[in-house]
Amino acid sequence: MRSAALFLAGLIAAPVIMMAQAGPPAVTPVGCSKDANDWFNVAYRAARDSAAQPGGKPADVQGLLATRTARTKACAAQFSVDRTSGPQLLPLASLYSEVGEDSLARAAVNKRLGEPGLSDVDRADALVTMIGALTKPDTLVIARAEPYMQQLDALPDATVMQKLDAHNRLNGEYRYLDVNDRIRQHSLAIIALGRKLKAASSAGDRTPGTVNPYVLLSAYVNLAEVYADFGRVDSTFMILEQAPSDHPEIAAKDADTFLKSERDRYELVGKPAITLEANH
Question: Residue 25: helix, strand or coil by DSSP?
Fold first, then answer.
């Protein structure tokens, strides 16, 4: 019966995977990523369902991820920087970055930046794409994004959303790398930009023109942590208290949920540790 169950599971899973492989090839860079992700989602569900059968083997997630990357690379090979122009260069750059072709990603963005007649928004979109391509968990690579961030910061306020996006990407990566001076730099930039914008009342609010409140609140939390690392706990509390003051439009319960655990953690600084007792 076990062999029969596995055989039936294979019969069920195989057509599902084949269905994900079928269909016309993607004709845009965005389509490459979508097709590969759609394939992965279907293949993963099939593998997971097969693994749930009696005697089933665990899903080979790493193998599926490797196949997704290979499919994306194969799809990307049909495009080239030389044959692409205009706004399509940016999704092409993102596709190249996704599959690790960073030099091609930079070439695509640089070609876009060199095209005549770009508006400030066009240039901002290109700079955000370049910064995204350089935002890697590597301090040497990510440092090369900073000159592009400076160019973006120099653009008019009409590009404030692009500036916020780029600073947020860099801040998150520097937070992962634990580079305090850069965390401080980008957190302060986000806080300053945030004062020109309106946050959504909650993370689920999709009101046009508003910013996810957690993007803004995270900047205060990250900045507070930098000061805490240097023992300046008073400054840490001031920063955390400033967040709801700067953005009263954020629902109090959402702000408190996000900030309370941080305040509670820093309240422990300087207090004696809890005595642990054990009965022998």
Answer: coil
* C-beta contacts of 150-159 below 8 A and 24+ residues apart: 151/123, 151/127, 152/124, 152/127, 152/128, 153/189, 155/120, 155/123, 155/124, 155/127, 156/120, 157/196, 158/120, 158/121, 159/120, 159/121, 159/123, 159/124
Q: At 5, phi and psi to the nearest 5?
A: -65, -40
| Predicted local confidence at residue 10, as pLDDT | 40
DSSP string for 76-134: HTT--STT--GGGHHHHHHHHHHTT-HHHHHHHHHHHHTSTT--HHHHHHHHHHHHHHH
For the whole model, what pTM was predicted?
A: 0.80
- Contacts of 262-265 with C-beta under 8 Å, sequence gap 24+, read 262/221, 262/224, 262/225, 263/237
- What are 47-90's pLDDT values in tens digits? 999 999 998 889 899 999 999 999 999 999 999 999 999 999 99
- pLDDT tens digits, one per residue of 117-167: 999 999 999 999 999 998 887 777 899 999 999 999 999 999 999 999 999
Token digits of residue 235: 């400054």
- Per the listing, tokens 């780029």 go with 166
DSSP state of 272: P
Nearest alpha-carbon partner for 230 in 189, 183, 195: 183
Q: Kindly write down the DSSP assignment for every residue of 215-247, as one continuous string.
A: HHHHHHHHHHHHHHHTT-HHHHHHHHHHHHHH-
